[in-house]
Design a protein that fits this description.
single chain; alpha+beta; 60s Ribosomal Protein L30, Chain: A; 7-stranded mixed β-sheet; 8 helices; globular; binds magnesium ion
Length: 334
C-alpha cells in the first residue's frame, strides 16, 4: 500500500492528473475510451460525466450552474454527439443560503433550455457545515452520435499534415475566476468564456464529416494540455505558430503579471479542431460563422516529428516545447 496522498495538483488537468488516471483509475475500472471527452455506449449513444467545484460559485461571465450544463454539453459535442439528456447531482453544504441555491438552479435551468437539453433526473445530498464548500455539482450527459462510431472525432485520430484550429483567444475563464476569487483589480474586466459549443461542433462534423479528426475543449491545463493529450493519444507532434494565436489583451496582461502562460490557463467556451488539411479553410469559415467562434484561427499543424509532444514556433522563429502543465496552476476553477 502506497503512503502517497492525493494533492490539489492531481486535480489540475496536467501531467500529474494524467498519471493518477492512467496508473490508479483507468486500469482498476477498466475504462475503454479513457481520456476522451465522452465515451461510446453503443447504439449511437455517448455518455459523459463531470463534477464542478468552482470557487467562487459566481464569477464574471458565469456561475457553477451554467458551467455544469455547458461543460457537460461540450464534452458530448467534442465527440460529435447532440445532447439528449442530463442528470444533475447536488452536494450542498449545510448553511448554504436557499436564495443562493435558487439562483444557481435558475441559471442551470436557463442554460439547459438554451442547449435544448432536458434535465431528466438528479440527486441531492447535504453535508455538515465545514465539510462542503457551499455547493458541488455532478452531472451525467447522454448524447446522440451524428455519425457511426468509427467516424466520430477522437483524440486518437490526428494525422501528420492535419491543420490545427482554435475557436478564439485562450485563458479567459481561468483568469476571470481567479480575478473574482482573489479580487485582482487588474483583471477585473476579464469575463469567463463559459459557453455551449455543440452547435459549432455539430456543424463541423455535419459539413466536413470524417475530415474532422479531433475536437477537444481546452479546459483545465488550457491549450497546452489539450494539444499534448491529442499528441500523446494520436502519437503525433503538434506545432502551433505563436503569431497565429488569437489573443485577448487583458488576459495576456493578467497572465504576465501573475507569471502564467495563457496557453496553460483554462477555457470553458473554446474548442480545438484538428482537421484534414484539405478541409482547413472550410473548417475555419464554419467556425468563424458561429458567433462563439468569430475569432477562430488556423494556428498550427500536425507532424510526425516530435511525436507525443506539442511545440510553439515563436515569433522569432525559435521552437519551444509546449509543456503539459504538471500540476495545478489554478485549483478549483471548474
Ligand atoms: Mg472536456
Amino acid at each position: 500500500m502506497s503512503s502517497e496522498v492525493v494533492t490539489l495538483a492531481h486535480g489540475g488537468g496536467g501531467s500529474l492528473m494524467r498519471e493518477l488516471l492512467v496508473r490508479q483509475v483507468f486500469p482498476v475500472l477498466g475504462v475503454v475510451e479513457a481520456g476522451e471527452d465522452a465515451a461510446w455506449v453503443g447504439d449511437g449513444l455517448l455518455m459523459t460525466t463531470d463534477s464542478f467545484v468552482v470557487k467562487p460559485l459566481f464569477f464574471p461571465g458565469g456561475d457553477i450552474g451554467k458551467l455544469a450544463v455547458y461543460g457537460t454539453v461540450n464534452d458530448l459535442a467534442m465527440r460529435g454527439a447532440r445532447p439528449l439528456a442530463l442528470t444533475v447531482g447536488l452536494i450542498v453544504e449545510e448553511g448554504l443560503g436557499l436564495e443562493v441555491l435558487e439562483e444557481v438552479l435558475a441559471s442551470l435551468a436557463e442554460a439547459a433550455e438554451e442547449c435544448e437539453v432536458p434535465i431528466i433526473g438528479g440527486d441531492t445530498k447535504v453535508v455538515e457545515a465545514g465539510r462542503g464548500d457551499g455547493l458541488y455539482i455532478n452531472t451525467a450527459g447522454l448524447g446522440q452520435a451524428v455519425a457511426p462510431h468509427e467516424d466520430l472525432p477522437s483524440l486518437a485520430r490526428a494525422q501528420p499534415g492535419d491543420a490545427v484550429l482554435v475557436s478564439g483567444p485562450m485563458g479567459e475563464h481561468g483568469v476571470a475566476v481567479l480575478a473574482a476569487r482573489e479580487q485582482l483589480g487588474f483583471a477585473a474586466e476579464v469575463m469567463s468564456d463559459c459557453a455551449p459549443l455543440h452547435e459549432m461542433a455539430l456543424v463541423l462534423v455535419g459539413e466536413l464529416g470524417t475530415d474532422v479528426h479531433c475536437l477537444h475543449d481546452p479546459t483545465r491545463g488550457g491549450l497546452a494540455a489539450a494539444l499534448n493529450e491529442i499528441a500523446q493519444t494520436s502519437a503525433v507532434g503538434l506545432r502551433v505558430y505563436e503569431a497565429a494565436l488569437p489573443r485577448q489583451e487583458a488576459v495576456e496582461v493578467a497572465c504576465e503579471l501573475l507569471g502564467f502562460d495563457s496557453l496553460q490557463v483554462a477555457n470553458e467556451g473554446k474548442l480545438v479542431a484538428v482537421v484534414a488539411k484539405r478541409s482547413a479553410e472550410d473548417a475555419l469559415a464554419l467556425m468563424r460563422a458561429d458567433a462563439r467562434g468569430s475569432q477562430s484561427a488556423l494556428v498550427g499543424e500536425v507532424m510526425l516529428e516530435v511525436a507525443g509532444r506539442a511545440e510553439v514556433l515563436t515569433g522569432l522563429g525559435t521552437r519551444r516545447v509546449l509543456e503539459m502543465p504538471s500540476g495545478e496552476l489554478l485549483p478549483r476553477i471548474c
